[in-house]
Specification:
There is one protein chain. The protein is an alpha/beta fold. The protein is 37% helix and 12% strand. 46% of the residues are buried.
């Protein structure tokens, strides 16, 4: 039986109030629901299966625009009741103060708002509607005022890759707790966009890693960019600083999957081929046995990725490989890395799941931390416990390894209570 996923992304609907040029789902502007999308009853059944498969997982409810789904509050409430962590992925334009407060009451932990530039004109042009930038920023403010955690999500292009500092400044000004930079994978309408060259990809990723070091209180991440682990020198099973042993490398089919509006399951949002259909098979059977998922977990990548000394800890982006080579386990042609002449292909070791003992009072304190940062706090404490061969994580251990930065203020408050 496979280890349960940590993150699930669910495209609840193809309906959207915008027409973004880079939309991987190729979402559509329409006034009524699409007939083939999961009904409320079907969606609630899927929520129940998710709760059984992966309690504690982050469930990203997105679209299209999920706020156009009339049963969103009901789905959020059901997910929270099953020990999932509901997060809403939105363009922010429909997220009023009243709507944000209702989502918070239903049990949402936070929202991810898409902002593609610190310049309103660039964002509005990309999103296809004047006022889209103002709506996104307004949505972030409404969410924060309602007590929801805020993530700012940014897709990088040639036109905005040099604006990283401006993005970080905007995220801090709007009270975001995390800033996620997504590297474009050319699927959906994204095939019409200009992707970064391999050299620009590498340079931008290096800039992002430096940016994180200058903003300790803001969690900054590069998504769909597994090269981060290689650039940090992290091998399989290793973690350092804010990077857990599983983070940054491609999570598709390993600790992450996506559900489409019609109930199909794919390894990630940028991999269009379905690994299963939740109208025909139970979720656990798909997660445990789907051939694509088994390949992603058990097969080494091909091409230059297969001979790389970071082939396990990085392994390349599987969606980009599929888009560029037609092979899910082919090489990631965007990667410009050339191993040293004496480099040895990385062996699949160091990936065993660690069993860390948590004292009951320490576990109780962990559960009091807001969902958005709980997994990061847990990972950093467990890394320290492994490094120091601690027999268990206790309250005293937590106090001795108290994280720094505004993101972890809830943990400090819990310690001091």
């Amino acid at each position: 039986m496979a280890q349960p996923p940590r993150i699930v992304s669910w495209n609840l609907t193809r309906r959207c109030n915008l027409a973004c040029g880079h939309c991987y789902l190729d979402a559509v502007q329409r006034k009524s629901d699409c007939a083939d999308e999961l009904s409320t009853a079907e969606a609630l059944r899927v929520v129940e299966e998710l709760g059984e498969l992966a309690p504690g997982a982050m469930l990203v409810l997105t679209g299209g625009e999920p706020l156009l789904r009339r049963d969103l509050d009901e789905l959020v409430q059901a997910a929270a009741a099953r020990d999932l962590m509901p997060v809403i992925g939105s363009n922010g334009m429909l997220l009023t103060a009243a709507r944000a407060a209702a989502l918070r009451r239903a049990g949402a932990a936070g929202v991810g708002i898409s902002v593609d530039s610190a310049d309103p004109a660039f964002h509005d042009t990309l999103r296809g509607l004047p006022g889209a930038w103002a709506g996104a920023v307004g949505g972030m403010r409404a969410a924060r005022q309602a007590g929801l955690g805020v993530l700012m999500q940014t897709t990088l292009f040639a036109g905005n890759r040099n604006d990283l500092d401006a993005f970080a400044q905007l995220a801090r000004e709007e009270g975001a707790m995390a800033l996620n930079f997504f590297f474009l994978v050319c699927t959906g309408r994204g095939v019409t966009q200009t992707d970064l060259s391999g050299a620009d990809y590498e340079a931008t990723l290096a800039d992002i890693l430096r940016l994180q070091s200058r903003h300790a209180g803001l969690m900054i991440r590069a998504r769909c960019a597994p090269y981060a682990r290689r650039m940090l020198g992290l091998k399989a099973g290793q973690g350092a600083g804010a990077y857990a042993d599983w983070s940054s490398a491609c999570l598709a089919g390993r600790s992450y999957f996506r559900i489409t509006p019609e109930g199909k399951v794919t390894a990630c949002p940028y991999i269009p081929q379905a690994a299963g259909d939740l109208r025909r098979a139970p979720l656990r059977a798909v997660w445990d046995s789907a051939p694509d998922f088994l390949r992603l977990r058990g097969e080494m990548p091909g091409g230059k990725c297969g001979g790389c000394d970071y082939r396990v800890s990085c392994g390349g982006c599987r969606a980009r490989s599929l888009a560029m080579t037609g092979d899910l386990m082919g090489e990631d042609a965007k990667c410009a890395y050339v191993p040293a002449a004496d480099a040895v292909a990385e062996a699949p070791r160091g990936l065993a799941v660690r069993t860390i003992v948590w004292a009951p009072d320490a576990q109780a304190l962990l559960e009091r931390i807001p969902g958005f940062v709980r997994s990061r706090v847990r990972d950093r404490l467990e890394e320290a416990a492994v490094r120091e061969a601690a027999p268990a994580i206790t309250l005293e251990f937590m106090r001795a390894h108290r994280p720094q930065g505004a993101v972890f203020s809830a943990l400090r408050a819990g310690h001091d209570a």
